[in-house]
């Protein structure tokens, strides 16, 4: 009762639940992944708004009862923490939205090919990486899904982190060179997060080394690897770095335009093989041509690596900055590995 009275008394001062990824019921979760189904699948046209959902409690892909443009789904529940109650105007929390193709702005080729969002206070928050152009809207606009976001498959990977992980994430984002289109970093956070301060201000970024591999830990203790490359490191991130660092052949699902696509590559000790067809439960089958997501899995089941991120296997993207977040969570691995219906060997 005492705690309830204190919360009522302090409600105007922000006595709210800690920021975190939120599931389909609106409850906090350590992580979740959504896989938006493309408009064209199984030779027919769908809504382009349906999606599969995965988190640590459901363990396998679940067909969501919501659509991605529904504010009551996992994405809407998670971003509601920013949009509702004008949290973006307080000095007790910070956020950053970045996208190389932001809402309401023209594409600018000078930034990293990277998309994501952060929201946190001095206790914890979330970092969401995704593949959706023109998303999410600035907080004053409220939650919505872009009209352009129906055609292709898309993914989003949200992870909850304790505050002490934020400086590590901020350093990785310097390599990303993200196009920040909306940001708030009150003075209380700036001593710890000077890298985010530079990004929020749009300052010229310091020259970083070519790439950096950083170990991160989720709020509940799950280990993740963050691969971040700058545009100074010119190579396909999957072939030249991730496969070799993880010591595993990779099956890669990325959007490839015919004039720029990279073939499957077996020139290095660990191979990188292009996925061509996806099969989600249902069965829902679609071609990689209709998939804008960026992810990869170990070909060998015993390795159990899954990575989600920003970059496509295209020749032009070798010059782009961006990254991947990799996990050895067996539920994530099996969910993605079993979606691989067809891939191209060398």
From TrEMBL:
Pfam families according to UniProt: DNase_II (PF03265)
Name the GO terms of the biological process aspect: apoptotic DNA fragmentation
According to the record, the signal peptide region is 1-17
Reactions that this protein is recorded to catalyse = Endonucleolytic cleavage to nucleoside 3'-phosphates and 3'-phosphooligonucleotide end-products
Q: Name one GO molecular function term.
A: deoxyribonuclease II activity
Q: Which domain of life is it from?
A: Eukaryota
Q: Does the keyword Cell inner membrane apply?
A: no
Keywords from UniProt, A to Z, are: Hydrolase, Signal
EC number(s): the record gives 3.1.22.1
Query: Which enzyme type, at the first EC level?
Result: hydrolase
The record's comment on protein family reads: Belongs to the DNase II family.
The identity of this protein, by name, is deoxyribonuclease II
Instruction: Give the taxonomic lineage as stored in the record.
Output: Eukaryota, Metazoa, Chordata, Craniata, Vertebrata
């Amino acid at each position: 009762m005492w705690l309830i009275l204190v919360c009522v008394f302090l409600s105007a001062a922000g006595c709210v639940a800690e920021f975190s990824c939120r599931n389909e019921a609106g409850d906090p979760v350590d992580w979740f992944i959504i896989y938006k189904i493309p408009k064209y699948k199984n030779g027919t046209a769908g809504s382009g708004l349906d999606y599969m959902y995965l988190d640590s409690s459901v363990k396998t892909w679940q067909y969501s009862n919501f659509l991605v443009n529904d504010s009551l789904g996992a994405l809407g529940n998670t971003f509601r923490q920013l949009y509702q109650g004008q949290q973006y105007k307080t000095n007790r929390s910070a956020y950053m939205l970045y996208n190389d193709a932001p809402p309401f702005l023209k594409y600018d080729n000078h930034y990293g090919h990277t998309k994501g969002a952060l929201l946190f206070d001095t206790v914890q928050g979330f970092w969401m990486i995704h593949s959706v152009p023109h998303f999410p809207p600035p907080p004053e606009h409220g939650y919505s899904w872009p009209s352009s976001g129906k055609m292709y498959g898309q993914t989003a990977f949200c992870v909850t982190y304790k505050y002490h992980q934020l400086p590590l994430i901020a350093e990785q984002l310097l390599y990303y060179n993200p196009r920040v289109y909306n940001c708030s970093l009150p003075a209380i956070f700036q001593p710890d997060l000077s890298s985010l301060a530079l990004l929020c201000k749009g300052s010229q970024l310091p020259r970083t080394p070519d790439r950096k591999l950083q170990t991160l830990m989720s709020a509940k203790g799950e280990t993740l690897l963050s691969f971040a490359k700058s545009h100074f490191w010119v190579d396909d991130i999957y072939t030249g770095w991730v496969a070799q660092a993880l010591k595993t052949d990779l099956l890669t699902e990325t959007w490839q335009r015919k004039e720029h696509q990279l073939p499957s590559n077996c020139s290095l000790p660990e191979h990188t093989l292009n996925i061509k067809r996806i099969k989600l439960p249902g069965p829902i089958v679609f071609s990689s041509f209709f998939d804008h997501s960026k992810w990869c899995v170990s070909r060998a089941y015993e390795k159990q690596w899954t990575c989600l991120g920003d970059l496509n296997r295209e020749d032009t993207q070798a010059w782009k900055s961006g990254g991947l977040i990799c996990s050895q969570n067996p539920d994530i691995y099996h969910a993605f590995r079993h979606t691989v219906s067809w891939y191209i060997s060398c």
